[in-house]
Design a protein that fits this description.
The complex is a heterotrimer of chains A (307), B (250) and C (330). Chain A is an all-alpha fold. In chain A, 74% of the residues lie in helices and 3% in strands. In chain A, a hairpin with a 2-residue loop joins β1 and β2. Chain A starts with a helix and ends in an 11-residue tail after the last helix. Chain B has helices at 44-52, 74-80, 97-108, 123-135, 151-164, 181-194, 207-213, 231-236, 238-245; strands at residues 6-15, 18-28, 33-37, 59-64, 67-68, 82-85, 169-173, 199-203, 216-221, 224-229. The chains are: A mainly alpha (307), B alpha/beta (250), C mainly alpha (330).
Chain lengths: 307, 250, 330
């Protein structure tokens, strides 16, 4: 376990965390303002990746592909909202789960039908390909740093938007008490559309950005979705700040846990059981973390809703 | 000397910077009907929520029959004999009126960790529940779904549920809320009949009811007790007249 | 903002006659399936309906906590998977006797339910759904990391469980009736529990937990007991599943499976018990039918689910009620 390896894994953890934040940000606001469980958010992420690949194949330029992917994803998201979601806001959470689950099933099959089941790849944009030396002898991929940087930048942007603009104030109020905000004459539905559209684009952006590193395949949104839910539950539903902190925490815990579980366990037990138990504990880590947080704070760390 | 049934000692409740209960000290004796009146926003419901256990006070203690219940959860206080009705009707809408009350009876009887036998066919429980319904004038409405009862009937059902618990202290949070004159009068009659059987803390805006029923009155303004005494004394207290009663007494 | 779902506003005493008749029909039909199957592709039909009943057991357990208790668990498949793994793991060590592996399956699931329930039940609504989902995932990943027992690929169950040492269950027909018997017992037990003292408190906690607390009920404790019962029955379903498919895999615990169980209880009619059986049958049979038509059947199935949620309130039973209502009025 060298310092170099630790630094690399910390950066990987940050990158993963930033990715989770981009997805969780949209999710937590949608929950907070509309009390709507949107399982289909994960497919937005998947769609962003697939669209980026498709448009890149068409244009050969990553930036253009990215912009087009975001635009199409936004339109698609709003279409879903119009056709399906808006009829579900006053329904039971159970029904929302089933309906959005149905959308996942449909879209996972749809991308398989259109693009085939084999994983797709996207080359890293020329300018950002390659690695830079963080320390002597320690190379780290530039693209991953780009992801971290863009995620932090967006985090800052959201912080300013949500914390210091009028719309942001309405969003925060809506996340705390939607009925009250509506009663005050604010068109809560239009507010929600803005939130929803934004969140959709964030998820698609995450998908597009990760496409060069990860393989793009049907169902890629599913695992990430669940992690995003863990993030917002730990962070507190409706809270941007909570989502940001929780996402980074989970990204780090998961990545570092998986990399060093066996090594850490080897400090207290012989190598053989460490190697068997290690991976199991590593995969459990996030859930144990969540259980602990919820045990002491059943509404997450920074719940937006007043008690 | 017997303990008062309820004793609040310098109770404080803050929500962040907002002080809702500002040092309330109050006691209620056995069989006493104690009314708490005050303008809206005075903190009456918050007070009741602290006594019943739904809210934890920031400071101060609550004693129930000599036992310090300040840290006890809601259900344990109920088991000790503390019942309450809610300002916003809180019944089980998809259960019948009888079953609503039967659950209260079931709670104080033998264990509810029984997994066989039809609960709704237990003779003794149903009889006791029926009796409580009769007390509040709902004898005929036992089989009606609680959701289908009129507003006034639902308020009466809340009372029946509380009565069926055979409590030592009943907290009544605006039982007349939203009822018309006739139904209010009926509820007052019911409460008159129940008087003395157990202690009651009555929070109400309806002054006719309050002065008809109360043994003692506490006036709550801005989270503090402004005055405390018999109805006549309170009615005549210049502080109270100035702060609250004013025109309403004419 | 949210409307409460399901469970009709008819009092149980008024329902009993109709429910009894419908349940009798269901079990009669199930009992006769093997005879009808003899005229066609027997082992296929037997296998299909065995699976229907196995999932019906799991669905009943979920309907109990979800439809009657108001606890929407998105991690219910974990109990099924744990029960299945109990069979698989014991089998890998040479233990295949039902009298050992069945209690083991149910006990392990019950323990998991107790531990996770202690944490989950302190949370409400959305948080509860999410945390049950997460615990389900946890179980899924743990199972996948059991390299000794197949890891991600799963484990074959070489022999079906023996009954008192006799390999009766190897015979598909005998196994079918064994599963049918289990389903019947589970159904009957839940019917009794739901209207018992415990059941009444459990159902009341769904309507108004605050009110129940002010009556003197420790709502958390009651809900946890219900959750453990549900988990144990899930374990039973897992035992049956492992024997039915003769295979055990982490996929049994995936969140998609949990989602499917939720679909089943919603499809049949939430909070009715026999709806869970109908829903399990409907789901699996529709899945079979559609996948026979086209490989892209999920393209139809997904939107179908959305449509069902949007337009078929109360599931199939609710639909039947409305149709009956319309016919009655004409």
């Amino acid at each position: 376990m060298s310092t170099g390896l630790v630094v690399v894994q910390i950066l990987n953890g940050l990158q993963f965390g930033v990715l989770l934040f981009l997805i969780a940000a949209g999710l937590t606001l949608v929950f907070g303002v509309m009390d709507f469980i949107n399982l289909a958010h994960g497919v937005q992420y998947m769609l962003g990746a697939y669209l980026a690949v498709a448009f890149y194949t068409l244009t050969g330029n990553f930036l253009i592909a990215l912009v087009l992917a975001l635009a199409v994803a936004l339109v698609f998201g709003l279409l879903l909202e119009f056709l399906v979601f808006r009829h579900l806001y006053d329904r039971d959470h159970l029904e929302q789960v089933i309906a959005t689950f149905g959308i996942i099933i449909f879209l996972n099959q749809a991308v398989k039908t259109i693009w085939g089941a084999a994983p797709l790849t996207l080359p890293i944009p020329e300018f950002f390909s390659g690695s830079i030396a963080l320390m002597p002898g320690l190379l780290y991929p530039v693209w991953r740093l780009v992801i971290i940087a863009s995620g932090l930048a967006i985090g800052l942007l959201l912080y300013i938007l949500v914390g210091h603009t009028r719309v942001g104030m309405l969003v925060r109020a809506g996340a705390t008490n939607a009925r009250m905000v509506s009663a005050l004459g604010v068109d809560i539905h239009r507010l929600f559309m803005i939130v929803f559209g934004f969140g959709t684009m964030l998820a698609a952006f995450a998908g597009a950005m990760i496409a060069p590193i990860l393989s793009v395949e049907p169902g890629m949104g599913d695992t990430v979705l669940i992690l995003a839910f863990v993030v917002i539950v730990i962070g507190g539903i409706g809270s941007m700040r909570g989502a940001f902190l929780a996402a980074l925490l989970i990204g780090l815990v998961d990545t570092l846990g998986r990399s060093f579980a066996i090594d850490i366990l080897r400090l207290v037990m012989p190598p053989s059981p460490a190697r068997t138990v290690g991976p199991a504990i590593a995969s459990m880590l996030i859930y144990v973390l969540m259980a602990l947080v919820l045990y002491f704070r059943p509404a997450g760390l920074f719940p937006a809703r007043g008690r | 000397m017997t303990d008062p049934v309820l004793q609040l000692n310098d109770l404080h409740k803050n929500f962040g910077g907002l002080v809702v209960t500002d040092g309330v000290t109050l006691d209620i004796g056995p069989g006493e009907l104690h009314a708490v009146i005050g303008p809206n926003g005075a903190g009456k419901t918050t007070l009741i929520n602290q006594i019943s256990g739904l809210l934890a006070p920031t400071a101060g203690t609550i004693s129930f029959n000599g036992i310090d219940v300040t840290g006890l959860p809601v259900d344990k206080r109920a088991k000790l004999g503390l019942a309450r009705s809610f300002q916003i009707t809180s019944v089980l809408p998809r259960f019948s009126a009888l079953e609503n009350v039967a659950l209260a009876v079931q709670a104080r009887g033998q264990t509810s960790y029984r997994f066989f036998g039809r609960a709704d066919r237990e003779r003794a429980v149903n009889d006791a529940a029926g009796a409580a319904l009769a007390e509040v004038g709902l004898a005929e409405r036992g089989q009606t779904l609680a959701a289908h009862l009129s507003h006034g009937e639902k308020r009466a059902l809340e009372l029946a549920i509380a009565v069926a618990m055979q409590p030592k202290l009943l907290l009544l949070d605006e039982p007349m809320a939203g009822t018309g004159r006739e139904e209010s009068a009926r509820l007052v009659d019911v409460l008159k009949r129940l008087k003395g059987r157990f202690s009651m803390l009555l929070v109400e805006h309806d002054m006719t009811a309050v002065f008809a029923l109360a043994d003692r009155i506490s006036v709550l303004t801005y989270g503090r007790i402004l005055a405390n005494g018999t109805p006549d004394a309170v009615r005549a207290d210049p502080k109270v007249i100035a702060a609250y009663l004013g025109e309403e007494m004419e | 903002m949210t409307q409460t779902l399901a469970a009709s506003s008819v009092l149980p005493s008024q329902q009993t006659g109709r429910v009894g008749a419908l349940s009798a029909v269901i079990f009669l039909v199930l009992a006769l399936v093997p005879f009808g199957a003899a005229f066609g592709p027997e082992s296929y039909v037997l296998g299909l309906f065995t699976r229907v009943m196995v999932f019906a057991v799991a669905a009943l357990a979920l309907d109990f906590i979800c439809g009657y208790g108001g606890l929407v668990s998105f991690g219910h498949a974990a109990f099924v998977g744990i029960g299945a793994y109990a069979v698989g793991i014991l089998g890998a060590h040479g233990i295949t006797e039902t009298l050992v592996s069945l209690p083991a399956a149910m006990l392990t699931s019950a323990i998991f339910a107790y531990l996770t329930g202690t944490v989950c039940l302190r949370t409400k609504s959305v948080y509860f759904i999410m945390i049950t989902l997460a615990f389900g995932q946890m179980a899924y990943f743990i199972a996948g990391s059991l390299a000794l027992y197949g890891g991600d690929d799963g484990l074959t169950v070489r022999l079906r469980s023996t009954l008192l040492g006799f390999p009766i269950l190897q015979n598909d027909r005998a196994f079918y009736y064994f599963v049918l018997f289990s389903l019947f017992v589970v159904y009957f037990v839940f019917r009794v529990i739901v209207y018992s003292r415990f059941g009444r408190v459990f159902r009341g906690a769904r309507e108004n937990p605050t009110r129940m607390a002010t009556l003197g009920f420790d709502v958390f404790r009651f809900q946890r007991v219900g959750y453990v019962i549900s988990g144990a029955v899930g374990g039973l379903s897992g035992f049956l599943l492992a024997n039915a498919t003769e295979f055990v895999s982490p996929a049994y615990m995936s969140w998609q499976r949990s989602g499917e169980l939720i679909i089943m209880i919603l499809l049949g009619g939430l909070g009715t018990l026999h709806g869970a059986i109908i829903g399990a049958a409907a789901y699996l049979l529709i899945e079979e039918a559609l996948s026979g038509i086209t490989e892209q059947w999920k393209l139809i199935f997904g939107p179908l689910l959305v449509l069902i949620v949007l337009f078929a309130r109360g599931g199939l039973l609710g639909l039947a009620d409305r149709i009956r209502g319309k016919l009655g009025r004409d």
